[in-house]
Amino acid sequence: xxxxxxxxxxxxxxxxxxxxxxxxxxxxxxxxxxxxxxxxxxxxxxxxxxxxxxxxxxxxxxxxxxxxxxxxxxxxxxxxxxxxxxxxxxxxxxxxxxxxxxxxxxxxxxxxxxxxxxxxxxxxxxxxxxxxxxxxxxxxxxxxxxxxxxxxxxxxxxxxxxxxxxxxxxxxxxxxxxxxxxxxxxxxxxxxxxxxxxxxxxxxxxxxxxxxxxxxxxxxxxxxxxxxxxxxxxxxxxxxxxxxxxxxxxxxxxxxxxxxxxxxxxxxxxxxxxxxxxxxxxxxxxxxxxxxxxxxxxxxxxxxxxxxxxxxxxxxxxxxxxxxxxxxxxxxxxxxxxxxxxxxxxxxxxxxxxxxxx
Length: 358
Hints:
By secondary structure, the chain is of the alpha+beta class. It is about 40% helix and about 15% strand.
């Protein structure tokens, strides 16, 4: 912690908890102190160094009662808790008496105070408020390091994509389209596919770039389709290597193999392969995307498609190469496509599997 007020020469650098008074206190170099009071009956966690936190934003799960345990879905490991900062300032929510939450509330307040790094930005006051330094809309994601350590090569960035599906972002934003999320008492988040976790552009898209397209459906579709292009690029590389092996093994059939190379070079083929071979998702969501894509194709006097990959690719060609042929009213359908397309892209990025293809 490092805090210096405009009107004081002292530096506040130490955080402690007064068990008798039930409040946090920050101390300065001259043994002066400021209290940070809370209405919660916190439960002390002695090993706060075993925890860390991330600040997220959302306009969906942002009520003080939106408090959830967060689990790694693949390994069923509890990573920590996620809740609005407002849940730390109120005792009116459902978890105000929950001993597990009260421990995480203690950890959150300690870590938030200890992370203050500010010099000469404000006048001193008698009481320290967390929301003096953090947004009142902030979402706090507290992670237990020892639990996270059970997951090989753990990185919180690996969950960025699936967190986005729940409406959580590393940027504060306000969605222009209502996003429906399904949560119970806990949130089960999945890591991005190991086959693409080194592609940092994906995380950049879901941390910031996709949010910047929120008000532009056309730009948003472009950004989402960038994820498809990234994946089908990997499919090309993988299948080209396989094809090269065939060529090396059978040089007498080069003429026949040229048809395979031509097919592989086609983007439409690789999009179909992406949906049918290299990923897996519930058929219902694919049908919804197909139907939304077919709607804009129909209103643009284009042929509707029976397959989700064909319909998406046709819309891609329509938007990228012949946008002017889409009736102005029909362009509104792009918003509807994006709502479903975002969910589909998340499923593609989580379930993409190229390393075990035989």
